[in-house]
Structures
1.
Amino acid sequence: MFFPRFKKSTNNKGFSIIEALVGITLAALLLVAFTALISQTIKINHANTSGLKATMYLQELIEIAKDLEQSTSTWQSNWISTTGQECNTLYVCYPMASGTTWTLISTTTTAKGEYLENNIYTRWLTIENVCRDSNKNIDACPSDELSTSTKKVIATITWNNGFGSQTSTLETYVYTY
Amino acid sequence: MASGVKLQLLKHMFTPIKNKRGFTLMETIVALGIGLLATTMVFYIFTLGLKNIQTIKNTESLHSNANFLLNTLTYWVKQGENLTASGSTLEIELPDSSIKTIATSSDDRITLDGVPFTSDNIKVTDLNFTKMARSVQIRFTFTIEAKSGSATTTISATTTIAQRNI
């Protein structure tokens, strides 16, 4: 009646089991396809938001490094955390506002950095020495000399965007004159 | 077409149907039921899709406004010599001693010297500036209120903008 081409039975009464099954399967397939599409777009939407926020949190680390670069005369000590650990090799650092100044707090490299928004984002800073060649250009260490006026700051953030673990890094150099 | 054939067709059209089975009441009810079910399902998926589109549009709007806010702030803060932050107001003193003021308006938008620069469909439910040694920390929350068929979307974040090393 509804599917005359599929009809094999000679009488005119109702659907055959095959017809019913085919109909239900088609409907289910469409339903599943549409809901999958919709849930996927929602997921991508969330991933976009988390990506944007991760960029902000990451950029903040660089900006804080730029604040620290300018805010104290003993700038070299800025890159050592309040607990006395340097922000490299065995320790990574994260910033904390105390009053109107930024300070660096160190954690071990296994308990990495600072956890934001219920552990969705983890961010940290490392600080590396900078070497210069005979022309005073920045060069991979060890080179002709260890620069006393420059440090390299590397900011890293990792987060889960719903599809998997993401990592993003930014680098900058800080100077003293 | 010959008039004879035309007449034949006309005759056929109005011949009462005999010995042809129509639908029984049960068949009609079942068919209506299935049709109703299918329509509801399609309608449901359709509205779900529409809601989804609205939510995505709202999120996109929040994203671009958050980006624009940070770009604007970065532009002025980097040029500023002195910053004064108090709650949701940030005053940026430029090298020529003029002052740029970032604040919120009564209709919950962010203003630059009194001129709103965030979209009017977005409510700024939180804006806070904290002045640090050579930077300013910004905390903000943007909200798009739930309209019929869309959920409330929000974005809130904190970030910091440093002044230039001059």
Note: The beta strands of chain A are 91-98, 101-108, 114-116, 121-132, 138-139, 145-160, 165-175.
2.
Amino acid sequence: MPLWLEMQVLMLLTYAAGLGLGWLVFKRKG
Amino acid sequence: MVQMIEANWIAFALALLIGLLVAWWLFARGSKGARERAHRPDVLDEGMGPAQRNQALIDAPSATAAALTPPPVSVGMAGIGEVIAVAAQDEVEEAEARAADEPAPVAAPAAEPPAPAPDGEADDLRRIKGLGPKLAALLATLGVTRFDQIAAWSEADIDRIDAQLGAFAGRIRRDSWVEQAKFLAAGDTASFEGKFGKL
């Protein structure tokens, strides 16, 4: 796996993790 | 992999932040909107009065319908225009009841005292600029089928017919029907085209 692709996948996973975390936090408040 | 994250931690932190921001945008704001919708005001919050008034306005006949079918009034109280309008309306209704296959214009002209009775065959009123198929049909129900009838209209006649044109009120004067009809009734096509454009 080329380095740039690995980087992109990790970035996408990080973004998804942020989205999931935000959902958990704000869903409870709302 | 850990080394890569450590080397680019700013980029990953930014991605996480964007993810959080999007989640907030989607869920926090969305649920706020849902709360606002849950408290939507109702017309009945103000009591029954406004609701009843609104219902009465909805149930009331439209102004157009009222203009097209004037209520029957006593002769002593009414203007001559209203009497003629009521008579014309009755005549049209009778004609429709008598024969569905017979066109109304044939029977209706009897209720048009100011206009000469259309003894000849009907003209194509749509040749008048600003007078389309709908208006021609409407005029036919009022007994107007010929150019010489329109050409003979007085100011009072125009007012009377205008009041029965509903959504087309004001067209007679705006488009100078009488003047156009005078040329067309006389067959003076050259003068007509000179003044109002090509037929």
Note: Residues 64-196 of chain B form one domain.
